[in-house]
């Protein structure tokens, strides 16, 4: 390597991650060990000196895809450096780039180009999750778990999370709602047996047994998202019709208004909302929650906490 410092380049990452890569006001062991490397500097580091990232959100790496990347590295070299933090003398930890790291080992490389950053454990988690969400082809369930970890372990509010990942609150909620589905359906989503569109439709079915029944039918009959949505709408329509028969009939205009309000509330809170009103304009609003985290999310939206 030469002593000439490379010209700093603007980051192609989102604003949130760019802010994270600035020096933290909190001093820690990693910071005290950091030499005066330029922010955009690229350095050759021995693969044996690098530890894998314990905060890596991706749980599965395709072996064939890794081999293809390894073959490409042998031909083209490492086009995009990995990012690491310094733990100790000759000891580093991955922040991002585990596929490149693993493929380089398969390719038989001894060293790899890397950016060296300063970060504490919480920043490591946040950087790793956000970088992978923005750069890697994560499936929707992995993204949902990453969002959940950012909220729970990095103490982010939903609005802050949306800013970090460049998504609005509704989109974030749509991913988080996937985690309310039964394990069998989550596994089907993870294994690409159904799409996120199928899963989002199934969330609107209250009964877990009915969710699973529709899920199995969708796989067996290879139903499209629209077909599943129609099936869910039919089931929910039958249920609502039975409930409405027990109540005093509403004026058609008033019934339409109530339905529209209920839909807006469901979109705002990212969960199914039950709104009931009788002919005397008396009623109730029910917002179900499925865990303490889900309750806190709703309370945040209501600005109660």
From TrEMBL:
GO molecular function: DNA binding
GO biological process, any: chromosome segregation
Domain ParB-like N-terminal: 43-133
GO CC, one annotated term: chromosome
Biased composition (Polar residues): 23-33
Statement: the UniProt record of this protein carries the keyword rRNA processing: no
Signal sequence segment: none
Chain segments carrying region Disordered: 1-33
Pfam families membership: HTH_ParB, ParB_C, ParB_N
Keyword hit for Iron-sulfur: no
Keywords attached to this entry: Chromosome partition, DNA-binding
SUPFAM superfamilies the UniProt entry points to: KorB DNA-binding domain-like, ParB/Sulfiredoxin
Low complexity bias locations: 9-21
Family as reported in the entry's similarity comment: Belongs to the ParB family.
Protein name: ParB/RepB/Spo0J family partition protein
Organism in which the protein naturally occurs: Aquiflexum gelatinilyticum
